[in-house]
Design a protein that fits this description.
This protein is of the alpha/beta class. Helices cover 32% and strands 19% of the residues.
Length: 317
Amino acid sequence: MTAALRAGVLAMSIVACTRPRPTVSAADLAHVERWWIVIGASPMLESLDWPHYARDAQMVVLSGDPRIPVQDFPPRTIRLAYLSIGEADTRRPYWPAIQNEPFLVEPNPNWPGVRVDFRDERWQEVLLRDELPPLMQRGYDGVMLDTLDTIPYLEGKDPARFAGSRQALRDWLRRMREAFPRAVFIANGGDALVDAAPFVDGFVVEGVFALYDPGRRAYRATTDAERAWKLGAIARARAVAPRPVFTIEYADVGDTALARWAAQESTRHGFRPYVGVRDLNTAPVTLLDLGTPVNPPPEPPDGPESGPEPGPETPPR
């Protein structure tokens, strides 16, 4: 373990000991029913009353922006920071230092990210040395790991060039867990969840019942085939490790019919839903705000299916 990693772990312990709140552990995820995620950029977020919106939340996922007063959140609220690991975020402070590195593979057409060759130890060290320790020092209890699906996507797209990428992910996750044994980690993905399962405490899956369709530029219920694939990915991961499952469903502002139905279906499957817009950059909406669930589901879209564009499931941010 490097000196920077040791410092990050020490800082996390110090914060946990000094703030007047109970110790948070992975076991607490089992009790989370109300949660939200805000990680997109928006001018209105600068004036948001964060403690007010967190008052009824048992877990929140945030961008890691140092301006967000996580220390003012309710003591029992689990506080997780967002971290993209399969793609480099061009908005992060590390970007100027890595923008010419050979481990950058190709841009993601759907959001400001660049897919990376995860096998490269330089990128792995950026995450372990430069990203994770500062987040822990700011008072976060752990991290939601995102863009994991980029890793099996690249290996499947070009097996000769990216052979061993999934194994590299598993090896890195093991190092992460060893470096931060008390932190809470949840993984957002689909195909890669089975790789992450032994090393994380919960799963996040987007658009299981409602998604934003970039081809149609519209929100809609998922098709039977899309839903079956995502439920299958969850089942495969839970067969390895039976972790809690959190879903992010997507519905337009004001489309309460789609939002209620997606939340209802997620809950019916034993998952813990949050419903938001595609950029996840609005004031959090609780399921109580959605009112009474509806049944039956919304009408399927007219015309041929047009699911997400080829590539790992990464909605724009």
